Amino acid sequence: MTEVLFVATKRPELGILADSVGRFRDRGARVHLAGTFHVARVAQELSLIALDGVHQLPRGLSRRSGSVRRRAKASPVGMRVWLQSQRDRGFRRRALRAQVIVALDPGAVYTVWRLARYNPTAEAHFGVVAALTAFDRRGQRETVPRRVVFPAPGAVAQDVRRSVDAVPAAVMRAATARPVMRSALGARLWRSAVSAPGVPVRARVAAARYVAEGMRWAGRTSGAAMALTTAASRIPDLSLRAKLLDEGVMTEIAEGISPRDLHRAVGARLAQADEQYAEGNHEVASEALNRAMFLCFHRMLHVDGLSSPLVENARDHTASLQVSTAFRAVSRPRGRQTPAASPPAGRPLRLLVTTSANANFLHHVLSRYENHPRVELRYLDLAAQRALNRISWAARLMLEDRLAGGTTGYQAEVERLMRPHLDWADTVFLDWSVGPASMLTTIDPGDTRIVVRLHSYEAFTRWPHMTDFSRVDDLVFVAPHVKDLVTSLVPHLRGAGAPRTHLLDNAMELSRFVRPKPAEARFNLGLIGVSQVAKDPLWAVDVLKRVREHDERYRLLLVGGDMDPRTSRATGDYRRRLERVLRPLVASGAVVRLGPTDDVPGVLSDIGVILSSSLREGCHVGLMEGAASAALPVVRDWPFYAGRANSARTLYPEGWVVGSPEEAARRILDTTSTEESWRAAGGPASEHALSAWDWSVVGKRFDRFLLGEG
Question: Across-strand partners of 64?
Answer without folding.
Answer: none
